[in-house]
Amino acid sequence: MLVSSHVKTVLAWLVYTNVGDVENMRKILSDNFLDQIRPLSLGVPDLTIEPFLARMAANKIKFGIAEPTPDNIIEANNVVTIWTNSNGTTEHGFDWKNEYVIRFKFENDKIVNVYEWVDPTVVLAAFAKEDVVAEAQQYC
Fold this sequence. Notes:
Blueprint: H1 5-19, H2 22-28, E1 29-38, E2 47-48, H3 49-58, E3 62-65, E4 73-76, E5 79-89, E6 95-107, E7 110-118, H4 120-137
Parallel strand pairs: 1-7
Antiparallel strand pairs: 1-2, 3-5, 4-5, 5-6, 6-7
Helix pairs in contact: 1-2
Organism: Tricholomella constricta
InterPro entries: NTF2-like_dom_sf
Protein name: SnoaL-like domain-containing protein
C-alpha cells in the first residue's frame, strides 16, 4: 500500500504523542493549529499550538495510541481520518482503554486541526478515581 505524506505525518503524530516529543511535534503542526477533543463532557478545552504543546510536555499520564491498520485510515481532500484505540494509566495508576476516531486536517502539508472523538465513559471513570485520590491527599 502506498502511504501518502499526510498519512506518514499522522503516524508521526501518534508516535510523538505517545512519547511526549514536543520538539518534533512542533515541526508537523501549523502555526494556526487547533486541538479539539469531544464530546464536551470530557471538559477538555480547545487548544492552540502553544497550550497544546505545554499540555503534552507536562503530561503525567502514561499513554499509548495504537497505530491504525490500513483499513482504518481514510484520506481525502487534505483530511486524514483514523479509527484506533489507546490505553493509558493515570498518575495514580488507574488504567483505562479507549477507542478513538481522530480527524487530521492539513494546510500547507502541516496539521492545522486535530478533532478527536472519544468514548468518555471509560476515561471519565478513571479520572474520577484520580480526583478522589488527589482530594484525599490534601488531608494526609
